[in-house]
TrEMBL record:
It catalyses: S-adenosyl 3-(methylsulfanyl)propylamine + putrescine = S-methyl-5'-thioadenosine + spermidine + H(+). The active site is at D189. This is spermidine synthase. It comes from Tetradesmus obliquus. PROSITE patterns: PABS_1, PABS_2.
Length: 325
């Protein structure tokens, strides 16, 4: 087996290769009883889950939406044919997306913004942080919160926090309209850069986030798989190095079985300060008994530090754009 396997046949994100799909493309329940996640961003492979029952199928203004009960992973949310969350493993992603940026801050956060994240999972994790006074969310697709409330109450519980303000709107415009220095943390919980989420990976949006952050504030944005999307990650890291000049740029990742390759990353950037995001400075939050949110199951100070340790091939590809490696 070649030592250069990771560089072979890299998926390219272009108008011809990357396009939204549907749940129907991966599902033939009558014949097989399985859903296979087929996507233009991971050609030649597809995760399959045994389907017990389709709970919801619809099409919003922006995307195909499906919810089904699986044999192995509980309830599954699928948008444009791509698995977004399952009962069994969603916590590994939600906890790391929320707690890495909040715990890396030098001072406890008071105002946080989530762009995307309509399933409510990141909101649930932000609700653990007692220092937060305001939590805003800008989600473009109003159907996603409603579907999550109906079928994923364990995630959607985040919407019940009185500090949360839900805005159904264009996330880019919301960030552009925010006052300069408005937020301590901005978390972009987006789907892949295909369809309505594509603009969330482009430089004008990152420039708007930089403006909306206070000095020393942190953004954390979904940043794809080291195994499948190195070209996308390299481009994103290079762009962040430009936008966050004088600050810091880091890449971390978490494991999650139902995402392509079982791994997903996050770009973590600090405004105007070369803050080492590998170091947690705030304590890990606890349970939120009033909302019925139990103890953490994935995030810890040790896994915070470990999340930034890159395999050698990724280090070699990204080292010129990252501040602390």
């Amino acid at each position: 087996m070649s030592d250069n396997k990771t560089s072979a046949k890299k998926p390219r994100l272009d108008e011809e290769a990357a396009k939204p799909g549907t749940a129907d493309e991966g599902m033939n329940i009558a014949k097989h009883g399985w859903f296979t996640e087929l996507g233009s961003m991971w050609p030649g492979q597809g995760l399959s889950l045994k389907v017990e029952e389709v709970l919801y199928k619809g099409k919003s203004k922006f995307q195909d939406v499906c919810v089904f009960e699986s044999d192995a992973y509980g309830t599954v949310l699928v948008l444009d044919g791509v698995i977004q969350a399952t009962d069994r493993d969603e916590f590994s992603y939600q906890e790391m997306m929320a707690h890495i940026p909040l715990c890396a801050l030098e001072a406890p956060a008071k105002r946080a913004l989530v762009v995307g994240g309509g399933d409510g999972g990141v909101l649930r994790e932000l609700a653990r942080h007692t220092s937060l006074e305001e939590i805003h969310i800008a989600e473009i697709d109003g159907d996603v919160p409603e579907v999550s409330k109906a079928y994923f109450p364990g995630m959607a519980v985040g919407f019940n926090d009185p500090r949360v303000t839900l805005n159904i709107c264009d996330g880019i415009k919301f960030v552009q309209d925010a006052a300069e220095g408005s937020y301590d943390v901005i978390i972009v919980d987006s789907s892949d850069p295909v369809g309505p989420a594509e603009v969330l990976y482009q430089q004008p949006f990152f420039e708007a986030m930089h403006r909306a952050l206070r000095p020393g504030g942190i953004i954390c944005t979904q940043a794809e798989s080291l195994w499948l999307h190195m070209d996308i990650i390299k481009s994103l890291a290079s762009m962040c190095k430009t936008v966050f000049a004088g600050g810091s740029v880091s890449y971390a990742y978490t494991t999650i079985p139902t995402y392509p390759s079982g791994q997903i990353g996050m770009m973590v950037c600090c405004k105007g300060q070369q803050l080492d995001m590998r170091q947690p400075r705030q304590p890990a939050p606890g349970a939120h008994e009033q909302l019925g949110i139990g103890p953490l199951r994935y995030y810890s100070p040790d896994i915070h530090k470990a999340a930034f340790v890159l395999p050698q091939y990724a280090y070699d590809e990204l080292k010129d754009s990252l501040t602390h490696v």
